[in-house]
Every structure is written in structure tokens, then in C-alpha cells.
Amino acid sequence: MSSLNRRQMLKLLAAGTATVSLPSGLAFAGPGRMLKKPIHSSGEAVPVVGMGTWKTFNVGQDEQLRLARTQVLEEFFRHGGGMVDCSPMYGSSGDVLGFAFERLGKPDSLFAAEKVWTEDGSATRDEVAELESTWGVAPFDLMQVHNLVAWEEHLETLQEMKREGAVRYIGITTSHGRRHREFERVMAGEDIDFVQLTYSITNREAERRLLPLAAERGIAVIANMPYDRGPLIKGLKRRERVPEWAEQEFDCKTWADFLLRFIVSHPAVTCAIPATTRVDHMNENMRAGAGPMPTPELRESMIRYIESL
Amino acid sequence: MGDWTSYAVADFVPFTAEVYFRLIARVSERLWPLHAVTLGAGLAAAGLAWSGRTRIAGMLLAAILAWVGVVFLAGEYAQLNWAGTWFGGAFVAAAALLLLFTVPGPRGPARPPARPPARLRTRSVPELAGLLLAALGLLVYPLIAPLAGNGWSRAETFGIHPDPTAVAALGIVLMMLRGSRLWPVGIVLLSWCLVSALTLQVLDAPWAYLLHAAAGVALLAMLWTSVAGGRSRPTKSSGS
């Protein structure tokens, strides 16, 4: 085959990719068909739908609820799920994850994401060690500074730990648009792999500066609160049917498809982390990560549709 | 400032309604039949406080507050919410203050001025508000869950669960304490009532508003004692 033919072949392949409407950087995860996006700093790909644990996994010592959450987690991994995100602020959620992993084993696809959350800037290593013990997982794939609490000291230690191989990636988090200016300064000035921020179809503040900056700096983005604390999807499910045009254009069958695909189809977003207590909702969330993604034009239509409700 | 306006009350409630109400039921099941003892202690404390015999009332109430602080708040609730440890400590501190204010030490607290027997006196507004709150916490609270269709398993009882304990305790201390002795104990109980009422609102429990109302009545009564302090009776510590 001549070099010209190879170029033609590559063009043909590129055209074929375009027909399935996959934005740049997306790839299918494998048998589960979950899409993956790369972490810019390493090229490692993670599934575009992960799992948050705020409120949902904080069940204390309640054995019945711990077993129920274990089923939710099992379903997550059955669909090829990867990122599980937690924080010491989430009460017993870390303990409950540890309980679940004891029963499920540690799935190969697990991408364990935790946070340091203490005003004591010298306690980073102690807190990470405690979290490893709680989850029964070491090292963590991603360790983030929660809500920029004592971020200077924590980030310095986390950078050391990354060099030592004690964590694989490091990052910072915020939610609901808080401290975006300071967040932006850290993104611009520090060597981090991930940022976690709130981004949803009804909360698009991050589009103005943080998402473009993340793309420019090669920082992976985790979108939290994809359902805007929950009422967004609950309200839509109660009042509205998914619009027909969305189903025709990108096989959007549920509101989870609609809301999650909007988020992860943004070129700068790596993954979204919806939280749920229910296996059927987990199925919906994971299906959303496996379908065709909306084009930029469709994303605009989606925004207009939600704003019109 | 902009950051604070982005917070919703729900951002401070780190668990779901299912988890919280199952906790209420699980603690109740585990401690049964201690409910009869704690409820009896509460009724006795309220009766003693009403009749002016504050020493034993104070001891009973302090024991209950410390118990709920350690067992429910610091022991169980803190698993779900880190603030549970702080509230557990605050309940224990309130119990210690209550003992200090109602039980005589080696030299005893300042003796109250002579006054007519309780049955012959006209009751003050804070005392009447206290009686109302004590009745609410001791007698009405256990009925809320069954009346709301949630069954007896979720019934909340004085001395077992923090909401009826705080409401009834507010009532009892309004009968016993005044001025600088009332506020340090009252503020702990009021704070819990406010936090719990907001939590229940987030969890869509309609009786959140009852708790708000109880806290409002208690706060007004406490302010009343401060404004009309000179005319109200001080703590009596030797009547038991």
C-alpha cells in the first residue's frame, strides 16, 4: 500500500468516525460500550460516566442499606463503570465503599477518587492513609483537595506523593460555582491532573472560564452535581417526556441520557459523576454513557429546550 | 459573600430521608424497652420542676441530656454527620451546666429568696411556656410518627431521640432556670432544635414546622425571662 493510499485510508476512517457523532477523544470502553475519554496528563482513558457518593452512600452502620448500596456499586461495575468519587465530608460513605469492596472485590475498572478535607495543612498524608484503610484501596488513583480547603499545603504534599507513586493523579474540587476565581488561579498556576466542578445543563457557569482553561492547560474535568442536587431530573421525570427530536437525533430515551450526554459531550469534560441509591437509576445513568453524543448544534437545542420549560 | 448565597440548606444535610428515619427506628429498636424509663424520668423531672423541686429535676434532666448526647448524637448520628460529635459534646456540656446550676456544691449555690408555695403562686409566662413544651416533647412527640402514617417503629421518644429530648428539656429548664443560668443551657437545646428542624425540612418531614414553632416559643420565653428577669423567681435548689 502506498503512502498516498494510507492517507486516503486514514481520511476514510476519520469520515467513518464522524458519522457516529463521537466528539474528539471519545472511544468505546469495550463490551459494555461505555464511552471513555483520556486524562490529558497521561493519555489513560476513563469511562465518561462515573459515580458520586454524596448523600447516597452515607448510610452509617445500617446493614440492610449497606447491602443495597453494594448492589448499586455492583451494577455500576457490571456496566463498565470506573470512577467512584468520595470525600471524608460524606460521613460514612467511605466506610460503606470499603464494606462493598470487601464483598465485591476490587474491580479492575475501578478508578478510586478521594479528597483531602482538613484545615490542618500538615495532615495530608495521615488523612490519605486513613482513607486507604477505610476503602481497603491503595494507592488511590486520584486524590483531590476538597473545596480548596488549605489547598497550598495539601497540594504541595500531594505533588510529593504523586512523585513517590503514593497517588496516581492529583486535583482540586469546588461545587456550585464557589470560589471560581481562586480555583482559576490554582488551575493556571499549579501542576494538577484533574479539576472537579459543578457543571450541568442548568448550571453552566464553568463554560465561561474554567472549562476553556482546563482544555488549554490539559486538565481533566469531573462534573459533579449533574442533576443539580437531584430536583432537576426528578422534576423533569414527573412533568415531561423526553422530546422526540432528541430520541431521533441521538437515541436519547431517558432524562438521564439527555442530561448526562449534554455534560460529557462538552469537549473539555472528561466525566460526570451522578449519585444514586437505586439500581434502576444506575442502569439509566450508565446507559447514558454508552450512547451517541449530541453535536454542538444539538447541545444548543437542548439548552433552549430546558430553558423553555 | 457570593459564595454563601450559593449554599442551600440541603448542602448541609449529608444523608437521605430513608437513612435518617431508619436510624431513628434502629436506635429505638435497640434500646427498647428503655423508653419507659426515660419517659418516666422526663415526666418526673417536669413534675418536680413545676413544683419547684429543682435539685432532683436537674439531676434527672442532666442524666438524660448526657445520655442522648453520648449515645444518639456522638454515637449514632455522628456516623452520618460529622457535626453529631459537636452536638453530642454540647449536650454533655449542657448537662454539666445544669448540674452546676441546680445541685448544690460544698458551699451550695445562692439560696433563693423566700416565696410562697408553688401551688399558691401565679405562674409566669416562661413557666407556662415551659409546661407546654414539656408536654409536647414528652407526650405529643411519640405520637407524631404513627399519626403521620409512619408506624410506631419510627416514634421518637424523650431520652432516646434528640428532638423530643431537646423540646421537653427546654420546657423543663424554663421552669427551673432564669437569666444567666438559663441561656447557656437553653442555647444548646435551641441550636439543636433549629438544626434538626432545618434538616427535617430538607427531608420533607412536615413536623419540621412543629419543631420550628417549639424553638420559637422557647426563644420568646427565654427573652421574656431576660426582659422581666427581676420579677421572675430565680433557681430554687433546696426544695427536694
Explain what the structure shows.
The relative contact order of chain A is 0.14. In chain A, helix 6 runs parallel beside helix 7 (210-217). Chain A contains twelve helices and ten strands. Chain A has helices spanning 3-19, 63-78, 93-104, 124-135, 151-164, 180-189, 210-217, 231-239, 244-250, 255-264, 279-288, 296-308; strands spanning 27-28, 35-38, 45-47, 83-85, 111-116, 140-145, 167-173, 194-198, 220-224, 271-272. In chain A, strand 4 (83-85), helix 3 and strand 5 form a beta-alpha-beta unit. Chain A has a seven-stranded parallel β-sheet with strand order 4-5-6-7-8-9-10. A three-stranded antiparallel β-sheet of chain A has the order 1-2-3, with no helix packed on it. Chain A is an alpha/beta fold and 309 residues long. In chain B, 69% of the residues lie in helices and 0% in strands. Chain B has helices at 2-5, 17-31, 34-50, 54-80, 83-102, 125-147, 162-176, 179-202, 208-227. The longest helix of chain B has 27 residues, at 54-80. In chain B, 45% of the residues are buried. Residues 110-114 and 234-240 of chain B have low confidence and may be disordered. Classes of the chains: A alpha/beta (309), B mainly alpha (240). Chain A binds chain B through residues 54-56, 58-62, 64-65, 89-92, 176-179, 229, 277, and chain B through 3, 6-8, 10-11, 13-16, 18-19, 22-23, 26, 76, 79-82.
List the helices and strands and how they pair.
The complex is a heterodimer of chains A (309) and B (240).
Chain A: H1 3-19, E1 27-28, E2 35-38, E3 45-47, H2 63-78, E4 83-85, H3 93-104, E5 111-116, H4 124-135, E6 140-145, H5 151-164, E7 167-173, H6 180-189, E8 194-198, H7 210-217, E9 220-224, H8 231-239, H9 244-250, H10 255-264, E10 271-272, H11 279-288, H12 296-308
Parallel strand pairs in A: 4-5, 5-6, 6-7, 7-8, 8-9, 9-10
Antiparallel strand pairs in A: 1-2, 2-3
Chain B: H1 2-5, H2 17-31, H3 34-50, H4 54-80, H5 83-102, H6 125-147, H7 162-176, H8 179-202, H9 208-227
Helix pairs in contact in B: 3-4, 3-6, 3-7, 4-5, 4-7, 5-8, 6-7, 6-9, 7-8, 7-9, 8-9
